[in-house]
Write a structure and sequence with these properties.
The strands form four sheets. The chain has a seven-stranded mixed β-sheet, sandwiched between helices. The chain has a five-stranded parallel β-sheet with strand order 2-5-6-1-7. Strands 8-10-9 form a three-stranded antiparallel β-sheet, with no helix packed on it. The longest helix is centred in the C-terminal third of the chain and has 21 residues. β14, α21 and β15 form a beta-alpha-beta unit. By secondary structure, it is of the alpha/beta class. The chain is 36% helix and 15% strand. The chain has three domains: 289 residues, P-loop containing nucleotide triphosphate hydrolases (Rossmann fold, 3-Layer(aba) Sandwich), CATH 3.40.50; 223 residues, von Willebrand factor, type A domain (Rossmann fold, 3-Layer(aba) Sandwich), CATH 3.40.50; 63 residues, no CATH class. The protein starts with 11 loop residues before the first helix and ends with a strand.
């Protein structure tokens, strides 16, 4: 079934974002985010009904860097001996609507290349990029999020009447749906868009809104002004005013905020954004349902977190790092802790030069294919076939005859970093302030090193009946400061749930990055006290820990157990999965014994 724009129900913010992208005519990008099954793919496909004159270009999840640029037509090169270039995806983007479903599964480098190329297109070539992501399958880096002009997080529909309406609208046939009225409105607004005036006062107000949101860079300022101008054109205005800025503020700024939590959004209407009614003077405002839902209001300052650092130094030197560690109450360098026990070939970050099993990485040499997957080196393949052409070709034939035995694959290497997942027990037993501050200090220290070494750090906590990904894999120091500002503690310990969610996260990341080098650091006393006793048994926990260990190149267990009576459950987990084992006490300044300087200390590794 071909879905149209009219099939979208009860998602006014998403509808507004898509309409404004069409009104702007090109150079804009929209990112839709939600859980599975909420209609993101349908929304992407619906754009065809509103812009039938534009070509549609779909970016598959399997896209690699080589597919972006122009390349030779191998079939014609090998069969006819003629060099013919095939247009790459970047060249085919010009003037089209680019759809990127499941953008979270694409390599970040590919997404950056596509969005950066779109920014550089000139008049008449500009494209519209519409993407969809599912956060539960993997978060997008903050640097990639900033490249999208507009962001909409689809809200789940809990109202029974609205859910019934969604079903009715989705099951309507094409004969019952007419998009011509909406198409005409979009085209009229697109014609008005270049003529909409933007005063110096609007530029000042846009800059002030972005400053209050503490967003980095200037993409947000530009996107806010362009989107407000498109909104004014959609409302039939001749000049943009403050109400237009406020109407689109959340679309532009929410995904760029440095806050750990987003501000509450204004209540949204159930109906889609209304079309303009009449053309108005520069100082007037449109009287429409869409305008009513975004009534002019005073700028609401976005609260800045009290603990947000003014200027975190990401490239701190070794001496500064050691002083920070001492100040935070640590007697060790967390980066050194991860490096201990690794061979020189493994190293850290930029020091890892791994053989890339995918088609990414730097081409080093050609080799005979070892699997059915081909990443052909054209020149090496032709050289291998050249000595046999006299025996293979008929007299006078000029084409090159290549057989499978001539195939030569590209042997690639690339530098990569670790993906370090901290799995933190945030139950009531971890509520001691000293413990949680040490966990935060360790992660922030790793982030400083990660900035240089290309490592990514994530934080997942578990308590009560939930396991929550607090900090997705990131190298952003500012983002980490905000998300680590306050980790809630309390409740029982769902250890099995925490391990299973960590396993799911690693699976998701490895689908996106085939050459991932994951490390898991578990901080817990190993005591499972959740009410779900059936799955939280010690045997089930050990089995899940083995599954997690099978997905990583290294495991570290830091035992937080205290008291005279110690069950040693965390030690059992470390022994079962062959992890490096430490006690929290051995890593605190008050205890002079260092597990790195004294091998007979509390550090243990089995197997």
């Amino acid at each position: 079934m071909a879905y149209t724009f009219s099939h979208i129900t009860a998602q006014p913010r998403a509808q507004l974002a898509l309409l404004l992208a069409l009104v702007e005519g090109g150079g804009s990008s929209v990112l839709l985010s939600s859980a599975k099954g909420m209609g993101k793919s349908m929304m992407l496909e619906s754009l065809r009904s509103l812009a039938p004159e534009r070509s549609i270009l779909r970016i598959p999840s399997s896209t690699t860097q080589e597919m972006l640029g122009d390349r030779a037509d191998l079939s014609r090169l090998l069969s006819q001996g003629v060099w013919v270039e095939q247009a790459g995806l970047l060249q085919r983007m010009s003037g089209s609507i680019v759809l990127m479903d499941n953008v979270n599964l694409l390599p970040s480098s590919v997404v950056r290349s596509i969005l950066s190329h779109a920014e550089g297109l000139g008049e008449g070539e500009r494209c519209i990029i519409i993407a969809a992501t599912t956060p539960e399958e993997g978060a997008l880096p903050s640097g990639v999020l900033d490249l999208f002009d507009l962001f909409v997080e689809l809200e789940p529909i809990t109202s029974v009447p609205l859910r019934c309406r969604v079903m009715r609208d989705a099951l309507r046939t094409g004969e019952e749906v007419s998009e011509q009225a909406t198409i005409d409105l979009v085209r009229d607004a697109a014609v008005r868009y270049p003529e909409v005036l933007v005063s110096g006062e609007i530029y000042m107000q846009a800059a002030e809104l972005c400053r209050e949101a503490y967003v980095l860079g200037h993409r947000a300022d530009l996107a806010l002004v362009r989107t407000a101008k498109a909104y004014a054109a959609w409302q039939g205005k001749r000049a943009a005013d403050r109400s237009d800025l406020m109407a689109v503020r959340d679309l532009v700024l929410l995904h760029r905020l440095l806050h750990a939590t987003q501000p509450e959004e204004a209540e949204q209407p159930e109906s889609p954004p209304s079309a303009p009614q009449t053309e108005q003077s520069p100082n007037s405002e449109a009287d429409s349902p869409s305008e009513q839902h975004d009534e002019p209001r005073e700028a609401e300052p976005l609260d800045r977190p009290e603990d947000l650092p003014s200027s975190p130094q990401l490239e701190a030197g070794a001496s500064e790092r050691q002083s920070d560690i001492a100040h935070l109450g640590l007697s060790y360098d967390p980066v050194d802790m991860l490096q201990r026990g690794l061979s020189r070939e493994q190293g850290m970050g930029r020091r890892i030069k791994s053989i890339a099993s995918s088609s990414r990485g730097r081409f080093r040499r050609a080799e005979i294919p070892r699997t059915a997957e081909l990443d052909l080196s054209v020149m090496a393949t032709l050289r291998a076939a050249a000595p046999y052409q006299y025996g293979r070709r008929a007299e006078g034939e000029r084409r090159v005859i290549v057989e499978p035995s001539d195939y030569r694959n590209k042997h690639r290497t690339r530098r990569s970093g670790y993906h370090i997942l901290f799995l933190v027990d945030a139950s009531g037993s971890m509520g001691v302030r000293r413990r949680m501050s040490q966990v935060k200090a360790t992660i922030l220290e790793l982030l400083q090193e990660a900035y240089v070494q290309r490592d990514h750090v994530a934080l997942m906590s578990f308590r009560g009946d939930e396991a929550k990904l607090i900090l997705p894999f990131t190298r952003s120091m500012s983002r980490a400061y905000n998300l680590l500002a306050e980790i809630k503690t309390g409740g029982r310990t769902p250890l099995y749930l925490g391990l299973s969610r960590a396993y799911e996260l690693l699976l998701s990341e490895q689908r996106k990055h085939r050459d991932l080098s994951p490390v898991v650091v578990l901080l817990s006393d190993g005591r499972a006290t959740s009410e779900h006793l059936a799955e939280n048994t010690h045997t089930a926990i050990l089995e899940m820990a083995r599954k997690v260990s099978g997905r990583v190149i290294r495991s570290i267990v830091i035992d937080t157990e205290e008291g005279f009576i110690r069950l040693g459950r965390a030690r059992d987990i470390a022994r079962e999965i062959g992890a490096h084992y430490y006690t929290l006490d051995s890593l605190i300044v008050e205890h002079p014994t260092s597990p790195f300087q004294h091998p007979k200390g509390s550090r243990q590794r089995s197997r």
